[in-house]
Write a structure and sequence with these properties.
Elements lengths: L3 H13 L5 H8 L11 H8 L4 H14 L5 H10 L1 H13 L1 H9 L19 H8 L5 H20 L5 H26 L1 H6 E7 L1 H4 L9 E9 L5 H20 L10 E2 L12 E2 L1 H10 L3 H7 L3 E5 L1 H16 L7 H9 L22 H15 L11 H10 L5 H25 L10 H10 L6 H17 L1 H15 L10 H10 L5 H12 L4 H18 L4 H15 L5 H7 L1 H11 L4 H8 L18 H14 L3 H28 L10 H32 L5 E7 L1 H4 L9 E9 L5 H20 L9 E2 L12 E3 H10 L3 H6 L4 E5 L1 H15 L7 H17 L18 H15 L11 H10 L5 H25 L10 H10 L7 H22 L4
Parallel strand pairs: 2-3, 2-4, 7-8, 7-9
Antiparallel strand pairs: 1-2, 1-5, 6-7, 6-10
Helix pairs in contact: 1-2, 2-4, 4-6, 4-7, 5-6, 6-9, 8-10, 9-10, 10-13, 14-16, 18-19, 18-23, 19-20, 20-22, 21-22, 23-24, 23-25, 23-26, 24-25, 25-27, 26-27, 26-28, 26-29, 27-29, 28-29, 29-32, 30-32, 31-32, 31-33, 32-33, 33-35, 40-41, 41-42, 42-43, 42-44
Length: 995
Amino acid sequence: MTVPGRRSSTFSRLLRSGFTDPSGAARLLDADALSAVRTDPVLLDALGATADPDLALLGLVRLAEAQAPDELPLLLDTLVSAKPLRDRLLGVLGASEALGDHLARHPRDWQTLVTYEATDLHPGLAEFERGLAGAHDPVHLRVAYRRCLLSIAARDVCGTIDLAQTAAELADLATATLRAALRIASAAAPADAAQCRLAVIAMGKCGGNELNYVSDVDVIFVGDAAPGHDEGKAIQAATRLASHLMRICSETTVEGTIWPVDANLRPEGRNGPLVRTLASHLAYYQRWAKTWEFQALLKARAVAGDAALGAEYVAAITPLVWQAAERENFVADVQKMRRRVVDNIPAAQVDRELKLGPGGLRDVEFAVQLLQLVHGRSDATLHSGTTLDALHALAAGGYVGRADAAQLHDAYRFLRAMEHRIQLYRLRRTHLVPEDENDLRRLGRSLGLRTEPVSELNKAWRRHASVVRRLHEKLFYRPLLDAVAQLTPGETRLSPRAAGQRLEALGYADPAAALRHLEALASGVTRKAAIQRTLLPVLLGWFADSADPDAGLLGFRKVSDALGKTPWYLRLLRDEGAAAENLARVLSTGRLAPDLLMRAPEAVALLGDPEGLAPRTHEALEQEVLAAVGRAPHSEAGVAAARGVRRRELFRTAAADIIGSYGTEDSPAEEDHGALVDRVGSAVSDLTAATIAGALRAAVQGHWGDTLPTRFAVIGVGRFGGHELGYGSDADVLFVHEPREGVDEQEAAKAAQAVIAEMRRLLQVPTADPPLLIDADLRPEGRSGPLVRTLASYAAYYRRWSMTWESQALLRAEPVAGDTELGARFIELIDPLRYPVEGLGEDAVREIRRLKARMESERLPRGADPTLHTKLGRGGLSDVEWTVQLIQMRHAWAEPGLRTTRTRPALAAAQAAGLIPTEEAQILDEAWVLATRVRNAVMLVRGRAGDTFPSEARELAAVGRYLGYAPGRVGEVLDDYRRITRRARAVVDELFYGA
């Protein structure tokens, strides 16, 4: 019976020793198996030094209870008297529940830990092979494997070996295991073994001598015929042996499994043969392999089977690896590899992912391998399969700054140590940081964080992950700046040739020009140059993430030259994180936005204001424009001010569109592409209306003072009236006037004609701002008719002569400037025409269909691909709009929701009214939105309007990036466009043509 005072004292001591369940620990200490040592203070202190004292004590009790009666004293005596054994055994029991289970099942295996002292040589491949030599079946192989693993884990948790040594020993143990598995498979099928040569090539972490505790072991199998045997039959025999080897390691037995053997890195992956000859491997790599496959081959190492064949394989593929950077698609592949691949990680796990998440291990490994591929072709010191060794070699060669390499080295070691300890606990393959408090406590303590293990662990993890998140800046770009700035004498840095190779690999088409820009921006000791050296490593990464990095860097140099002396410019980019990224996106997307920005570089300030990219209302725009015109000394100055507002607002709209389409590090790309299209259409249409209103005010003021002799209104039609203008659209309008009381009709008509001519002249005066073209060809009688009519003249014309197509054109008529009351009366006049009571007659429907068919056959430009023309092509804008407009003219008289000038709301109203099935409405909407986005993208990229995809590869890639496609996916852009518009055309044939 325990004395109460003594119990209280034991309870307190257990708490101080780090036990989280002192009561449970006290009960375990009272177990009969520990009666000889339960009061030994050394034992309690040793348990308290482990990662999880409660787990260590439980494991010790289970191990003691599993001992034969005559062997228990040896365990307890050694435990108390031999500190190295005590630390190793309890260290393993406190860190690994799985190895505790193993020791309970195999109670003599603890004696494995007696043989290693801190000063002993570390075991290598030969020692592990001896440890596995007695295993002749999968079950005994697992037991022997765990026995060897026990010795590695013991030295690891005690700090006898560091992370790199642990990972190397785990790779050696895996090598020995593969050899043992092949030996067992060969013994089971001696006939197969006799007729073939089989080499096992380790890939991934095993090949790089940096394996985890629990990881897939990636392999490639190479086969050949033994002398005197048929090659085909030999490869079949080798395939059977390889399959058996994989099963021996991977299958679950009474002793569990070892690890999966994964052969999916082989040529053609799962679809390719498991075993190939060396010649077959080489044929594939020389003709079909992708960049990532050469990246994987960086770590290829022959580990088992026929040593000579394995050596031949490695010797043959090594030159191909170091020529990969010269391959045609290397840059595009690099851009794809650099983009983070987290799509398959559940959202709830992204922040806990050590390997694939932002700031994870994969980032470091991919980045180091990429630099090896770029620079290893001319520097053999970089030919290492081990990440930390390669990072050290990159720093030694000046390819990476030493301070940055040291930071990344520490971060990588810490993250790998976390990964090791997480996996060691249950010997399960996982890269997720646990959420449970006790698991986090054990993890923190296992890494030496003892005061506040959970908070210290989280703090250290976030700190190291943040270092890795910026690794592209540190590894790829900062050395380029160091190379051109040369501020630290004597430090090894990139040569111009190496810097050019790196820029080329990162997507820069003209590395020499890029280096000149960097030198101009970053050289010198001025404060401006110092800030640029801070900004450029980050900006270069964003530029490289675009389809045209060269244009981005050139644009940045131009903007910096224009604004470099202003005190706010560099401060904005340095202090407002969003501003720098937004500027990089805008400058490297195409020509339109940079051209607009260069005409007034101070507009860059919009990119740093959280509300700076929000579209302004029509009322606010018109108020600003009219105020600017009113202050101007003459009409030309007034319209110049209005056009300046238009240029600034076009830049605001384009920048918001680009950033919404690309996304940023802090906010993902806009998923609702329809909303993006609607914002652009509304913003450009409102801006055009405000500019025309300003030009009208300026024209009137310049010739008539405050009042024109006739009331005058501008009616927007086409895309303008539908609030669907793109960046390169003309403004389609109708002009209407009505003489003021007492004014002669001829005088009024002359005034109206004169004001139109003056508006057009003012809006097209050559200046730095883009012109605005006004197109009135949709007026009655087209180009043959008068440019402007009175309201009465319109009424007479429509009553007597109006054609069906003119009524259709009026569907998108809306007043945009001038006399509001006159504009409203014009709409009253045309409503019965565009929304005819009882709808269209059959003759009118046939006429519209005939016109549409004629337009398709006659207006499509010669040589244009009808499947890719966004306006007149199959399933394009015209198809969708004519279909919607036909529904409006037939049914809007009875369905008020159809009485809108906008295509998408009209389509939604038709669907809501049951006039078109939901699925078909969605198909038409998707095609219309996509075609509109393509037109906008072409204008943004090329700086001039176009209705088809660009033919130049870089421009086409830029359009694809704007549309949300990753680098190298241009083919998918065109395929998806054709597929979506083909479906839309099928709906058009049914709804419009009645097919």
